[in-house]
Design brief:
The protein is of the alpha/beta class. It has 6 helices and 13 strands. Strands 1, 2, 3, 4, 11, 12 and 13 form a 7-stranded mixed sheet that branches. The chain has a 6-stranded mixed sheet with strand order 5-6-7-8-10-9, with helices on one face. The longest helix has 18 residues, at 11-28. It is globular. 47% of the residues are buried. Fe (ii) ion binds at residues 39, 66-68, 147, 172.
């Protein structure tokens, strides 16, 4: 099975680049399962049902989330009707939606880190508990969108799940990392896939806004930047029978609106 994992899609430029590039990539690389992180797809913060369907129609099988999952309040009411959208597994009980889904024969899980982030339930134990609960029902092919800030926490999860997940794929920082590799027991790992968002930006946001914030610490409305869009993703090849990753490679493009 070949999986394409696309980093955080930022706002309209990100969605447009996904719509423009994803269908061809999916076809040319014979991808079996496309997972897209959509937590910044609505104006840079959060997701809506309409935007989720737009990303699905562009070729995503599963849309994952992160710390911004509820930034668009309407999504609280929408997520339960969207069976291709998952939210972090380790949100406290009472949150709508599910933290995992089985699609095209693969288990896809979304988890949220805790280092330099808001308080959450323990993501390491949350994934362990899920695997114990699913038992034999869990497909061999298992992918984690690991939405976390600290590279230490991100790599630690890879080692924690080595041999138990096919791939632990980082999201959230919007900065693609050059560490994609296979761990000894067959788990593909990358600290961060990156983003699909404006290149000339700070994590997708207009640079002058973020620079000013660092200079005077005043609150400002974030605006998604414009111009060339970077499309960051990783392709993972997995042995269906064992769930072991054979290879992981970066797939990065640029797109001019
Ligand atoms: Fe995030």
């Amino acid at each position: 099975m070949r999986i394409l994992f696309v980093g955080d899609v930022v706002g309209k430029p990100g969605r447009q680049a996904v719509a423009a590039l994803l269908p061809a990539i999916r076809r040319e690389r014979s991808v079996d399962l496309v997972i897209v992180n959509g937590e910044n797809a609505a104006g840079g913060a959060g997701l809506t049902g309409e935007i989720a369907r737009e990303i699905r129609d562009a070729g995503a099988d599963v849309i994952t989330n992160g710390n911004h999952v509820w930034d668009q309040r309407t999504f609280l009411k929408e997520i339960d009707a969207l069976d291709f959208c998952i939210r972090p597994l380790n949100l406290p009980p009472g949150n709508p939606g599910a933290g995992w889904v089985i699609r095209n024969g693969a288990l896809v899980v979304n988890a949220l880190g805790r280092v330099f982030m808001a308080e959450q339930d323990d993501p390491f134990r949350a994934v362990d508990t899920l695997l114990a609960e699913l038992g034999e029902r869990a497909p061999r092919v298992r992918i984690l969108d690991w939405h976390a800030e600290a590279t230490s926490e991100k790599l630690a999860m890879g080692w924690h799940l080595d041999g138990r997940f096919s791939a632990v794929l980082g999201s959230h920082t919007h900065v693609p990392t050059a560490d994609a590799r296979i761990l000894p027991q067959g788990t593909a790992l990358v600290a961060d896939a990156g983003m699909v968002g404006p290149r000339d930006s700070v994590l997708g946001i207009e640079p002058s806004i973020i620079v000013s914030r660092f200079l005077d610490h005043l609150p400002r409305r974030f605006e998604v930047a414009t111009g060339v869009v970077q499309f960051n993703s990783v392709v993972v090849d997995i042995e269906d029978e064992t769930g072991r990753a054979r290879s992981i490679e970066r797939l990065d493009r640029e797109w001019l609106p």
